[in-house]
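Hey, quick one: can you model this chain's 3D structure?
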Amino acid sequence: MLNQIRPALSRVTSPVGHALARTGVTPNTVTIIGTLGVVVGALAFYPFGQFFWGTVVITIFVFFDLFDGAVARVTGKTSRFGAFLDSNMDRVSDAAIFTGLILRYAGRDHNDMLLVCLALFCLVSGVLVSYARARAEGMGLNATIGIAERGERLIVSLVAIGLTGLGVPYVLAIGLWLLSIASVITVAQRYIAVRRQVEAGELT
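Sure thing. Here's the predicted structure for all 204 residues.
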């Protein structure tokens, strides 16, 4: 869904990409710095209940990570390895966010186990959403559909966690439930899309 605003977003990221390119930084370096920032923000703040400030740090580095593509376009250093690295680092970032939540709530009050289970489910289902697309592309098929791609999942999770840090009640559970349901729907949408393409190919 957020893919629809990519053209407008590129008008913002391109000037920053030019500025970063002049420093000599490479796209892969931008990717790694963005990932490390997210990991530090999640694991240094979330396990200790510092949800708001952790989310602020993570959001800054999520936006920073947007510029790796802009730097690649400006410098002409787009590569298949860069795309591979970016995809894998996205999985690391997502894992760090939900791991931070799990570390916060695991072993605490019995009522918090629901949050642990939801966070774990969001982690696994998010990986499955990404894997479904990657496996389809490996088969020469298209699975870039779904109501909850990575951008949408990040927004829902970070808003819910950040508002929890500000003391808003129940918003974390609500956000994780929404994320869980949306991820399941997205996986189903991608499975259906791939099956239709396979069946159409078998009929031709």
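One thing worth noting: The mean pLDDT is 88.
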